[in-house]
Write a structure and sequence with these properties.
- The chain is built from 14 helices and twelve strands.
- The chain is of the alpha/beta class.
- The strands form two sheets. Strands 6-7-8-3-9-10-12-11 form an eight-stranded mixed beta sheet, with helices on both faces. It has a four-stranded antiparallel beta sheet with strand order 2-1-4-5.
- α6 packs parallel to α7.
- The longest helix is centred in the N-terminal third of the chain and has 35 residues, at 104-138.
- It is globular.
- The two termini are 36 Å apart.
- The mean pLDDT is 88.
Length: 369
């Protein structure tokens, strides 16, 4: 059994910008070995971009990603911004120094001290940039992390057979024995509920659910430790969704997998995930255990998401009231800016100090303290 106290993946202050668009903005979380971590939010909130950044399909803008304690991805933008800010501060301090009533000898001495301090800081930041680039080159391919993509047909090459698609990762890793490759492909197909004969067919010959099983087989044949499942059931019928989710759950226990499960269907996420992170406009706004999040949602956006879940009960649906989330109405961040804070043990919310104190009172945590 995997040790659930061991952190397998740690994401620190991840930022992924596309020019001026902040797709992911200062997101931090960690995933324990053997758990399923759900990442939810509306379309366009940055869930998929987070997953693609972790697996290095994008070069991250800033922040760091650690896998099994080693940094596998790092951005340099934050270090460059730190250098620019330090230079600006240095120039402002020199202007203030010139306008002060100090003697010329004192001014010269302070100039030298400030310049030495600036040079030391710039050297330290440049060393961080060098280290980040070295870590990025060192871990060019992370085969212990695999991804299942959202669209099963778009992620499969139509000119390759299923056997070639599944074996491609093994070939890239350097395995050349055709007999061993074929045997691993057959085992992967059988593991996901397909048969050996499917290896010689092409993706267009399969249904949507079968194509997604091929995507799962392509991921598990590499024997990964972490799978990033990017909305793997959103393009499938409801009955097929259940089959794929049950398949992932079986593989999770059979292979000891850790899964980052990205979705916008909260009912599926609740069933499948141990912990859930909620994203909104590139920010992680709430993070808690699955049962805790559904029982005691704190952030207004989480409450809005949960209020949108329909139930097969006509009477309940008649009474169900949607909660709307309007950031400008629900928050006042003109003075105190929000950060991710731990309101209850293991329950984090993106809030400022006033909201933090209110959440503590609402949950009774303030009385216990």
């Amino acid at each position: 059994m995997p040790n659930k106290d061991e952190t397998l993946l740690r994401v620190e202050h991840l930022c992924q910008y596309f020019k001026q668009n902040k797709a992911v903005d200062d997101v931090s979380f960690e995933i324990k070995k053997g758990e399923v971590f759900g990442l939810v939010g509306e379309s366009g909130c940055g869930k998929t971009t987070t997953g693609r950044s972790i697996i290095k399909l994008y070069d991250i803008t800033s922040g760091s990603v650690y896998f099994k304690g080693e940094r596998i991805a790092a951005g340099t933008r934050s270090y460059k911004l730190n250098i620019e800010a330090a230079k600006k501060k240095y120039e402002d301090e020199l202007k203030e120094l010139e306008q002060s009533g100090r003697s010329n000898e004192e001014k010269d001495k302070l100039r030298r001290e400030k310049k030495e301090e600036l040079d030391r800081y710039i050297a330290q930041q440049k060393q961080e940039i060098h280290s980040a680039r070295a870590d990025h080159r060192k871990h060019k391919v992370v085969t212990d992390i695999q991804m299942i993509f959202q669209d099963p047909i778009a992620s499969l090459d139509p000119r390759m057979t299923v056997g070639q698609i599944i074996a491609e990762g093994l070939r890239i890793r350097g395995e050349k024995n055709k007999k061993e490759l074929d045997e691993k492909v057959y085992q992967a197909l059988e593991m996901v509920g397909l048969v050996r004969e499917h290896a010689g067919r092409y993706p267009h010959e399969f249904s949507g659910g079968q194509r997604q099983r091929i995507g799962v087989a392509r991921a598990v044949v590499m024997n990964p430790e972490l799978i990033i499942a990017d909305e793997p059931v959103s393009a499938l019928d409801v009955s097929i969704q259940a089959q794929v989710i049950n398949l992932l759950d079986d593989l999770r226990h059979k292979m000891g997998l850790t899964i980052l499960f990205i979705a916008h269907d909260l009912s599926v996420v609740k069933y499948f995930s141990d912990r859930i992170g909620v994203m909104y406009f590139g920010k992680l706004v709430e993070l808690a255990d699955s049962d805790e999040l559904f029982a005691h949602p704190l952030h207004p956006y989480t409450k809005s998401l949960l209020s949108a879940i329909p139930l097969p009960d006509p009477e309940y649906e008649k009474r169900r009231k949607r909660i709307t989330y309007v950031p400008l109405r629900d928050h006042d961040y003109t003075v105190d800016q929000p950060t991710l804070r731990e309101v209850l043990p293991g329950h984090f919310v993106h809030c400022n100090q006033a909201e933090f104190e209110r959440y503590r009172r609402e949950t009774g945590a303030a009385d216990e303290a």
